[in-house]
Design goal:
With 324 residues, the chain is α/β, with parallel strands linked by helices. The chain is 40% helix and 13% strand. The chain is built from 13 helices and seven strands. It has a seven-stranded mixed sheet, with helices on both faces. Helix 7 (148-159) packs across helix 10 and helix 11 packs across helix 12 (247-260).
Length: 324
């Protein structure tokens, strides 16, 4: 049995729970359960007839959260899956509609602080970065096998690393001498290639590690389509809350919500616009909700979090992609 952690600090907890507007007896999905901080509060509001569906790619985190939450509520199901498989999970559970859904796109503090998981450059560990440790692709595999041009593309697109070409070249040169196996090795190669960081307190390898993590776990692949599918499953007035931690995933979330709210996101004139222009949701957050000063005092790692929330409109009045 995995020890239950009690010092977990869920990001934007009160704001998220308020935004989900949890209804007693409803059906709610936590797509990225983590250690279960958000879900613990959800089940407290569900009442005995409500249902929680909890999903996580990290088997250890899922088990920790299960031990924490299962004793609190009779109707919880836990799934070791990629959240993008939610439609299949709901189909297997014979659930056609849900009342709310949460997706937290961040990496948990637990994952970052276990050196063996290889997410952080702060402590030496194997160059892993897999959220689901049953998958084959690791950061070590990518760093040592991908062509220089592909590494540069990943660092540019997913890390927004300004020195992507220089860093990719340094990695290729270093791996020709010896295989890059650990987080410390990679961090040193990147730091030497970039020189001293101009941003105080920011390690020069930060953006490279972010980019590799996103690529290893395919975090952005199909995210927009997934958000669309969640909206398909939402009951009228159901809520979808998404927490992001960097500009790439927040940009995808923002544009998807705008498109699903019937707005133009291609900004082409007149008949050239390719946007559906079908109003399926109402955007409840004109601007993203960010952590308060009080929260940041207790949880500085929440500083980049952004919460966006939409509410499903009655599908009877629309003619879009259709429901589940």
């Amino acid at each position: 049995m995995i020890a239950v952690e009690t010092d977990h600090l869920p990001v934007l907890l009160e704001e998220t729970i308020d935004g989900l507007d949890v209804r007693p007896g409803g059906i709610y999905v936590d797509c990225t359960l983590g250690l279960g901080g958000h879900s613990e509060r959800i089940v407290q509001l569900l009442g005995p007839s409500g249902t929680l569906i909890a999903i996580d790619r990290d088997k250890d985190s899922l088990e920790i959260a299960r031990q924490r939450i299962q004793p609190l509520h009779p109707h919880c199901s836990f799934h070791h899956e990629n959240f993008k498989n939610l439609p299949l999970i709901l189909r297997n559970l014979q659930i056609q509609q849900i009342d709310g859904c949460l997706i937290d796109l961040g990496v948990s503090r637990r994952q970052l602080t276990i050196p063996e998981r290889g997410f952080s450059f702060r402590e030496e560990g194997p160059l892993d970065m897999r959220m689901d440790q049953s998958q084959q692709t690791t950061a070590e595999l990518l760093v040592n096998r991908l062509p220089q041009e592909e590494l540069a593309r990943i660092f540019k697109e997913y890390g927004e690393e300004p020195q992507h070409r220089k860093v990719a070249g340094a990695i290729v040169a270093a791996r020709q001498k010896e295989r890059i196996r650990t987080t410390a090795q990679l961090a040193d190669v990147v730091a030497q290639a970039k020189g001293k960081s101009r941003r105080k307190g920011i390690h020069p390898a930060t953006q490279v590690f972010q980019a590799l993590r996103i690529e290893v776990n395919q975090e952005l692949e199909g995210l927009d389509r997934f958000l669309e599918r969640v909206i398909d499953f939402l009951a009228p007035d159901g809520r979808l809350a998404a927490i992001s931690f960097h500009s790439l995933e927040d940009r995808i979330t923002k544009k998807t919500f705008q498109r699903e709210a019937g707005r133009c996101i291609c900004f082409r004139p007149g008949a050239m616009c390719t946007c559906p222009r079908v109003e399926r949701v109402e955007i409840l957050t004109r601007k993203p909700i960010t952590p308060s000063d009080a929260e940041l005092l207790h949880n500085p790692s929440a500083r980049s979090a952004k919460l966006r929330i939409v509410k499903r409109l009655n599908p009877v009045s629309t003619s879009g992609r259709g429901g589940a």
